[in-house]
Amino acid sequence: MNISNKIMDGIASMGRGLLDNLAGLGRASMVLVHALFVWPQPKTSFSLVVKQLYNVGVKSLLIIVVSGLFIGMVLGLQGYTILVDFGSEQSVGQMVALSLVRELAPVVTALLFAGRAGSALTAEIGLMKATEQLASLEMIGVDPLRRIVAPRLWAGFISMPILSMIFAIVGVYGGALVSIEWLGVFSGSYWSVMQGAVDFYDDILNGVIKAVVFGFAITWIAVYQGLESVPTSEGISQSTTRTVVYSSLIILALDFVLTALMFGDV
Amino acid sequence: MAIIENIIEINHLKFRRGDRVIFKDININIPQGKITAIMGPSGSGKTTLLKMIGGQLSPEQGEVLVGGVSVAGLSRKELFAMRKKMGMLFQSGALFSEMSVFDNVAFPLTVNTDLEPSLIRDIVLMKLQAVGLRGAAGLMPSELSGGMARRVALARAIALDPEIVMYDEPFAGQDPIGMGVLVTLIKKLNQSLGHTSVIISHDIQETLSIADYIHIMADGVVVASGTAREIRESRSAEVQQFINGHPDGPVPFHYPAENFMQQLMGEKVGIDR
User: Fold this and answer.
1) Which of B54, B81, B95 is nearest residue A139 as measured by Cβ atoms?
2) Are residues A140 and B107, on separate chains, in Cβ contact within 8 Å?
3) A136–B contact, CB cutoff 8 A
4) Count of CB atoms situated within 10 Å of the CB of B170
5) In terms of Cα–Cα distance, which of B190, B184, B124, B109 is closest to B155?
6) A37 touches chain B (CB under 8 A)
């Protein structure tokens, strides 16, 4: 095979890959539209969402609280060791709070959420596909996109910002624990500097918006990977891995875009 | 659905998966109220055909008519409405793993009807009694044997008293007792409830013993159709190989390959080293 043929094959293969990805994006969009833009059934929709809120939200609480506490403690320690050189250790509360609320809470919560809840969603839906439970629902006359996918999507959208806020609150207390109790920063300074520096709209609301966007991205990727998984043990394992990898990359990329939009004009 | 002689009509069905032709030209009529079996070797597209009747797959060419209506032409909403008149027993049972046996059987009733809970309870108990598992109502699917799971799935499939019940390999992997129970159940339920039964299977003796009509598919076409007696007496080489289980014949033992001697002599090696 000569070089020009190899180049042509390479271009053709790239084209096929691009077309496959576009087709996948189209299918994922159809899943989203069919699952979300339907009239809710009051008899069942609410209880299904509550059940999924427990599965994806409440069951993620422990990992979020523990991670938030340690990250807040590390921030307090690192912030203190840097700021003490400039005699500004009383501002450590501001550093801890802004770092958490603007960046670390939404991003780290999202990464943990992708690993804990996203992978579980993909594996659950993939196994339901492999054991013909989704096909069985269809044959009973129930749309799996409404019954299985929609409640999980809503639960993901709702629980991510709440988890992110819990992460930030626990982190702030973790920072306080290290700064005030261990390193001797004056308690009044820690809290009052923080209160003066953190703005509700610029900091807290932007952080919540980030968490909502990340929650949307993770849950969409997770349910789509579950629905598209090859119904074998290897196929489900690959889809679960893809959920975590794609979600993590998308979170980091979206975080840059959102940060640039929110804080780029400073 | 109006009362018509053939509740399912499959006309000139063509279907491919990638480059592989599954159906070249399939024509099958399924009469109302009877047990019709569709048989054939593994990979002949039996389950694919069942998915087309249920509207889970669309044909490339040709049509599948259920109650005189083309399944492929239905909207998503109409399709789900049509499926409420169908029951399907999946090969794996496909019970919902997070629900008890009772809730699995009650599920089609709770999502598709506005019946009172007490009435749903009575119907579920009647369906479970019909399959002999009323005593297992409180168990979870993980606590059931393979045969019991399939009987629960059968109770769920008939929960809405469907007009058509489709069975995907109902006897596969069953011990002789479980197989006997299912054979008797399918026959009894068909007689007592009056629905149309479509059985996909390659368990010859069990299927021939209860089916009113049999269609044998091979190589993308229907190679034989008729009653159990007509099938047994068929002179077709494909039919005889299939019902007698001959390892070689029209369905070859060997997967297509290069000339064996040439490959051994290294003239054309098909395995990269």
Assistant:
1) B54
2) yes
3) yes
4) 25
5) B124
6) no
In chain B, the residue whose alpha carbon lies closest to the alpha carbon of A43 is: B111
Nearest in space to B26 (alpha carbons), one of B215, B181, B261: B215
Residue pair B35/B217 in contact (Cβ under 8 Å)? The answer is no
Residue A140 sits at the chain B interface (C-beta within 8 Å):
yes
- CA of A20, closest CA in chain B: separation in Å? 15
User: How far B141 CA sits from the closest chain A CA (Å)?
Assistant: 12
Is the CB of residue A132 less than 8 Å from the CB of residue A175?
A: no
Of the candidates A34, A44, A132, which has its C-beta nearest B94's C-beta?
A: A132
Q: Which two tokens stand for residue A84?
A: 């003490």
Q: Where are the domains of chain A?
A: 42-260
Does the beta-carbon distance from B80 to A141 stay under 8 Å?
yes
Structure tokens at A181: 């109790």
* pTM check: above 0.90: no
> Are B83 and A140 within 8 A, CB to CB?
yes
The per-residue pLDDT for range B47-70, each reduced to its tens digit, is 889 889 998 888 888 899 998 899
Confidence class for position A42, pLDDT limits 50, 70, 90: low
Q: For B67-163, list the strands marked E by DSSP.
A: 69-70, 86-89
What DSSP assignment string belongs to A123-155?
HHHHHHHHTTHHHHHHHHT--HIIIIIHHHHHH
**Among A153, A155, A150, A157, which residue's Cα sits nearest to residue A39?**
A150
Residue A146 has pLDDT above 80, yes or no: yes
Environment class of A142 (CB within 10 Å of its CB; exposed 0-12, middle 13-18, buried 19+):
buried
**Alpha-carbon distance B72 to B84, whole Å?**
16
Beta strands across the sheet bearing B86-89 = B69-70, B61-66, B6-17, B20-31, B221-226, B213-218, B35-39, B196-201, B164-168, B86-89
Given a contact cutoff of 8 angstroms between Cβ atoms, the answer to whether A110 and A160 are in contact is yes
* 3-class secondary-structure state, position A62: helix
